[in-house]
Amino acid sequence: MADERDAAAASGGSLVFAVNGERFELSTVDPSTTLLHFLRSQTRFESVKLSCGEGLGNIKDGFHPIHQRIAGFHASQCGFCTPGMCVSLFGALVNAEKTNRPDPPPGFSKLSVSEAEKSIAGNLCRCTGYRPIADACKSFAADVDMEDLGFNSFWKKGDSKEVKVKSLPPYNRNGDICTFPDFLKKEIRSSMPLDPKRYGWYNPVRVEELQNLLKDNDFDSANEMKLVVGNTGTGYYKELKRYDRYIDLRCVPELSMIKIDPTGAEFGAIVTISKVIESLRKNDNGGSPSREIQLVSEAIW
Ligand SMILES: Cc1cc2nc3c(=O)[nH]c(=O)nc-3n(C[C@H](O)[C@H](O)[C@H](O)COP(=O)(O)OP(=O)(O)OC[C@H]3O[C@@H](n4cnc5c(N)ncnc54)[C@H](O)[C@@H]3O)c2cc1C
Ligand code: FES
């Protein structure tokens, strides 16, 4: 603990975050601590459950329309994936509200059908099947065709569009759900560096710093070191090998660079494939892309 405190003090950083709008500040934290363990052992939120989606609503305070629509569209069978589906959709709804799109009709959100479908694209369901889950998500979309929504407990076959819309559990776009509190936005300074001696985790913030790390004699054995971009693939890809050192490239701005002009396109090494597609699409709509860019665009999608 003393080492960790020294590292945090030396970096001048502390971890500041909010739980249900309440501010917490930690001068040091063991990176293997799970949020669940922290909540149960060091806050008054002692009854938090693993895989819990109850922050959105619960039996005591009332369910969120996401819960109600998931239930009404029969979109939860064993329930294992349901909390993840709910919070993924909730995140998409919050992000859609941040856009300057026109206000949707009452009961709907600024989300589009395509975004509603994409919001759960990374979540796997083993038993319900995706159609009812996607229907529950799409029921929030401003551009949804009500005829496309499948079997549910809200309306009967043959009901008019107006009756269907009225039967959906109401969605209030200004609902009192705690997201990212304003006081935290003012406190964002940087990521909290971990003590590399202890955790073998390096966060270079400049290309030169990265080059120096790679030149360092301690890094001469390629087997011991891995370049990562957040390392979120761990767990998904069952790699059992543990490396002594990880270099996280996320904070090197040049590696996230995207430059597209009539002479060609240039992408930093850590730009995600979805960002590449998005930026090529934007370029495609905006101007007259070169033949090469057109070819790359066609090859990717
Ligand atoms: C959470 C969940 C809920 C589901 N709900 C439903 C539902 O409500 N309705 C529905 O129709 N489907 C449902 N399914 C799908 C359904 O369970 C599967 O499609 C079905 O069980 C697949 O059967 P299976 O025999 O192919 O494989 P499994 O059910 O996985 O059966 C494989 C069996 O073979 C045994 N086995 C494996 N290897 C060997 C071996 N070498 N020698 C001897 N035995 C071996 C295993 O122990 C296991 O008992 C659900 C699936 C999940 C995960
Ligand atoms: S509801 Fe069972 S895994 Fe999705």
TrEMBL record:
<dbReference type="Pfam" id="PF01799">
    <property type="entry name" value="Fer2_2"/>
</dbReference>
<dbReference type="InterPro" id="IPR016166">
    <property type="entry name" value="FAD-bd_PCMH"/>
</dbReference>
<dbReference type="InterPro" id="IPR036318">
    <property type="entry name" value="FAD-bd_PCMH-like_sf"/>
</dbReference>
<protein>
    <recommendedName>
        <fullName>FAD-binding PCMH-type domain-containing protein</fullName>
    </recommendedName>
</protein>
<dbReference type="InterPro" id="IPR016208">
    <property type="entry name" value="Ald_Oxase/xanthine_DH-like"/>
</dbReference>
<feature type="domain" description="FAD-binding PCMH-type">
    <location>
        <begin position="194"/>
        <end position="301"/>
    </location>
</feature>
<dbReference type="InterPro" id="IPR036884">
    <property type="entry name" value="2Fe-2S-bd_dom_sf"/>
</dbReference>
<dbReference type="InterPro" id="IPR002888">
    <property type="entry name" value="2Fe-2S-bd"/>
</dbReference>
<dbReference type="GO" id="GO:0071949">
    <property type="term" value="F:FAD binding"/>
</dbReference>
<dbReference type="GO" id="GO:0016491">
    <property type="term" value="F:oxidoreductase activity"/>
</dbReference>
<dbReference type="InterPro" id="IPR002346">
    <property type="entry name" value="Mopterin_DH_FAD-bd"/>
</dbReference>
<dbReference type="GO" id="GO:0005506">
    <property type="term" value="F:iron ion binding"/>
</dbReference>
<dbReference type="InterPro" id="IPR016167">
    <property type="entry name" value="FAD-bd_PCMH_sub1"/>
</dbReference>
<dbReference type="InterPro" id="IPR036010">
    <property type="entry name" value="2Fe-2S_ferredoxin-like_sf"/>
</dbReference>
<keyword id="KW-0500">Molybdenum</keyword>
<dbReference type="GO" id="GO:0051536">
    <property type="term" value="F:iron-sulfur cluster binding"/>
</dbReference>
<dbReference type="Pfam" id="PF00941">
    <property type="entry name" value="FAD_binding_5"/>
</dbReference>
